[in-house]
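Internal QA ticket QA-208
Title: Verify multi-chain structure generation after dependency bump
Assignee: T.L.

Test input:
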Amino acid sequence: MLRIEHLTKNYGDKKAVDDLSLQIRPGEIYGFIGHNGAGKTTTLKSVAGILKFDEGEIYIGGISIREKPLECKKIIAYIPDNPDLYDFMTGIKYLNFIADIFGIPSEERQSRIREYADKFELTEDLAQPISAYSHGMKQKLAIISAWIHEPKLVIMDEPFVGLDPKASHTLKEMMRGLCDKGGAIFFSTHVLEVAEKLCDKIAIIKHGRLIRSGPMEEVKGDDSLEEVFLELEGE
Amino acid sequence: MIKSLLKKQFAEFFRRFFFDYKRNKVRSKGAVVGFFLLYAYLILYMSGMFFVMANSICRSLSDAGAGWLYFAIMSGFALMMGAFGSGFSTYSGVYKGKDNDLLFSLPIPPRDIVVARLLNVYILGTVYSGTAMVPALLVYWFTARPGFGAVIGGLILYVIVSLLVLTLSCVIGRIIAAVSVRVKKKNVITVLLALAFFAAYFFVYFKARDLISDLSENAAVYADAIRGKAYFVYLFGSVGEGSFPWSAVFLAASAGLLALVIFLMSRSFFGNATASEKLSKTVYREKTIRGRSAFAAFLGKEFSRFTSSPNYMLNCGLGVILLPIVGVLLLIKGGDLLSRIPEFEGGFDVKGMVCVGLCTVLCALSSMIDTASPSVALEGKNIWIPRSLPVPAKTILHAKAAVQFIITIIPMLFTSVCAAVITPGNVFVRILTVLFPAVFAFFTAVFNTLIGVCLANVHWTDEVVPIKQSATVVIGVFGVMALAANIALLYIPAGFFMRADVYLGICTAVFAALGVILLRVIDKKGEVLFGRL
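Actual output:
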């Protein structure tokens, strides 16, 4: 589903991501962890096609995001770390805007909006302007808008920040549901307990370089993910 | 503490001149000079207007011993300019700073935050009021040749005016802050209030010309009458003539008034800055919605953006109101005026010049609709949305251009038809009077979009910055206005050997071609330019 080959991104003299390679197969939830400024957001933005990278290649469903970004964007969804949405729209207008972009037929979009908004208990607030939403409500709306076109790959940067426990649980269910249908998830998080329970595979990034990756059980062995992470960070 | 806050405000205000946020690096010396030249052009343009006015009344009033009246009048215009320029941005600049939460979480007294935020308002107000005050002082000094005392008095008067402008701006900002949390549909109300202000401003400005000529002819009579009935005005104006006791009194009074206003603002600042709008909750009811194309979706989004912000509507859509007003005025007064114009004078096609001039006026007015110029920068923190969606940049940019074109073409067609009715030209001229402004509107929509994406700075904390203070807007308004003026200027030599219909036909073809070329540039380079943001 996603293949990153030797990804390198520089900000001036600083190497934000250095020769990073990883692969995500359909059905996998892939966690991405690392310290602040390790290069997680840069990698996720590069995969989402909103940041140009200097070297390497990213393939989504076998298509190069560098060569055919629009084709790739049709099958992915991206949720940034801070859900800055169009404040001047209402929730429902924003969802319809996204649905229009992906050409989702009227009946399908209505049933999906109904389903996801009910799951996140956001239905009643859909007519409210986004400017009146709390951070958590914006995050829920961003998640619904990401799921509305049934993407094959969802890229999320700290998706659980701001969500209440029930919404976090709903999101985890939705992530698993999407992977069960053959989709894939690539997300960053600092909540290692969540990553440990939820992810099939995990990648640890440090100073832009991938220092460990693979199936969760292989990476952590008999230790907890936190112990492994702290040990690797200390090296 | 206040020193640190003032440093932050200074840095925020001047940083855009020296730092390119888009490329995240310091601007080159050439770019800095270019930036300053653009702003200097804008200031000189407005100052020139007041220079002409000051020049027309200074001699008669100073000869009649009424220099004080001259200063009172020019200070009045300076106050209007200052309040007009900075008053509307006070609310967003002082109360709605994006760093509110950060500053409130720090142990900073609200008064210090208010004072620091007012620094930007003060600079802006002083520059705007200076467009009237500086020419007024220069004209007086060179015309009346006063002593050193009057020069100092004039400078003190400028300081007093700048303090009064700041006080007025604070009051306007405070009123908007109080009203904004109480009223529904505040966007509409803000726009209506601002339009009423504009109407009053232009009414006074145009009436002022008649009043000024009357005043020049009867300077002594008016001076005596005003001095008798409004002695306060006499005392205020006498500051400019070098009356030091009254300079001290007015300086102290204006400083005291400002201090009082700041004190009152500081007391309610936290409450006003953190007050949330009283929203009545609208419960969502499911409705059948027809799907739209990506272009239509972005078009709808751009219209929503435009109508959601009074700042955006007022600063980039004023021409929508002005164009029909001019159309109606042309119908009422234009025909009579134009019928008196001779056809040829010294081989020059005077009527043709009038036809070209009419088109130029319409094009110049259309420059006051420049929604596309700041529209890319206005994406701000939302820029990730269009960039993460499977939509080509050209579709997004076309939508931005289309919004400007649509809101220009509707009033433009009305006004150009009015112009075509009264124009003294033949049938071809009449057709071109409608066609050429429409083509010009197409060109400016595309031009402003291209400028908007080339020079966009999406890193701002207050939307007023891209809407009012960006290079894209300066070019979008004044660049297009200058371009329109050149259409009439070029006809002065061309009018000796070319009929107006031929000239307008050529202009139509040239701007249509330029518009198409720029559209092709957007199509080809849009992805790269948008990707750089």
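Spot checks passed. The first helix of chain B runs from residue 2 to 18.
Status: verified.
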